[in-house]
Structure formats: C-alpha cells, structure tokens
Design goal:
Number of helices: 3
Largest sheet: 2 strands, antiparallel
Helix content: over 70%
Number of strands: 2
Strand order of the largest sheet: 1-2
Shape: rod-shaped
Length: 231
C-alpha cells in the first residue's frame, strides 16, 4: 500500500511538472501582431502620419485573446497517460483513490451545477433586456400616439377656428347682401325721382310752350288789329 502511495505521489509530481512545462510554453508564446507599415505623405516640409485608433474595451466583460485561451484551461499532459501494453498498465499512470474521486467528482458536479445556475441567471438577464427593449418600444409607440393625438387636437381646433371664420364671413356676406339690397332700393328710388323730375320738367316745358303760343297768338291778333286800323 505504501508502494502504491509512493508511485502515486511520483506520478502526480511528474504530471504537475509536465503541466508546468505546458503552462510555461503557453505563457512564453508572444502574441502575434501583424506589422503594417505606415506610409507618410510629405507635402513640402510637413510629414502627415496617420493616427492609430484607440483600442475598444468592453467594460464589465472578461475579454480574452486567442493566445490566452490555453492558460485558462485545466492543465493536462496527455503523455502521462501513454500505455504501451493495455494488459500491463504502468504504475506511473496518474491515479486517485476511489474516496478522493468521489469527493472531487462531487466538487466538479457541484461546480457544474453552479455554472449552469449562473448561466440561467444570464438567460434571465438576457430575457429581461429583451423585455425592457419591448417596453421601450411600447413606450416609444405611446409617445408617438400622444404626439399624433396632440396633432389631432390641433387639427380639431383649426377646424373650429375655421368654422368661426366661416360664420364671420357668412355674417359679412349677409351684411353685404343687405347693403346691396338697400343700395339697389336707393338706386330705384333715385331713378324714380329723376324720372318724376324729368316728367315735371316736360310738363313745365309744355306749359311754357302753351303760354308762349298763347302770347304769340295774342301778338298776332294785336298786329292784325293794328294793321286794320292803319288802313
């Protein structure tokens, strides 16, 4: 039993050493960046150099680059599990007792449940944002409806103002029509008055002509008598 524990400890040390080597390789690997030469445009003595855009950072999120993924994964050395003879597995294979397996398996299962539950909370957050978006759209639609309602009120007020304006115009039309009737009556009266005056003038003319004729006749008669006396 002690031999098994020693071999198990040795295997664990070898696995840890291999995992450390893998971790060192992944951390030492520099991030590859594409070098793009920047051309400068010279105009006279001035050189214009394009400015690099500032990197975008998402606040509140754990960002990661592809070259950083390996360092976030559990360390694993597949070479430690190589078996040449399947019927004679070497004692150097990484091993764990059944009791430790059950304990640590329980830890992993509990962690998986915790991660799943955390994911469910993010699902809830997503649906909440979707619902908030719908609520925002509904509120926006309400604002548009209120705007249209106010426009309708304005149109209705314009309609009422137009009615009052039309009534005022109707009153002015009635006054104009009454004035026209009065003016027409006055014109008729004036025309009749002028006709009467013309008739009176004609009568006066006829009377004057009669008087003139009578006087002329009297004059002729007087001349005849005077002529008879002179003979």
């Amino acid at each position: 039993m002690a031999r098994n524990n020693l071999s198990q400890a040795a295997a664990q040390r070898r696995a840890k050493k291999a995992a450390d080597q893998v971790a060192k390789k992944t951390t030492k690997t520099p991030a590859k960046t594409s070098a793009i030469p920047v051309k400068s445009t010279e105009s006279g003595n001035d050189a214009i150099t394009p400015k690099k855009s500032a990197p975008v950072s998402l606040t509140g999120l754990n960002e990661i680059e592809p070259n950083q993924i390996a360092s976030t994964l559990p360390q694993f050395n597949g070479d430690a599990y190589l078996v040449a003879d399947p019927l004679n597995p070497p004692e150097s294979l990484p091993q764990i007792s059944l009791q430790d397996y059950e304990v640590k398996q329980g830890i992993y299962e509990g962690a998986i449940r915790a991660v799943k539950l955390t994911g469910t909370s993010f699902d809830l957050a997503r649906e909440r944002f979707v619902t908030e978006g719908k609520r925002t759209k509904a509120f926006s639609a309400g604002v548009k409806y209120a705007t249209d309602a106010e426009r309708a009120k304005g149109d209705f007020l314009d309609y009422q103002v137009q009615i009052e304006t039309n009534q005022q115009k109707q009153i002015n039309l009635g006054l104009a029509q009454a004035k026209t009737v009065n003016e027409l009556a006055l014109a008729n009266y004036s025309e009749q008055e002028m006709a009467e005056k013309l008739t009176q003038s004609e009568v006066s003319l006829g009377l004057a002509q009669s008087q003139t004729q009578e006087k002329q006749n009297q004059l002729d008669e007087f001349r005849k008598r005077l002529g008879a006396l002179t003979k």
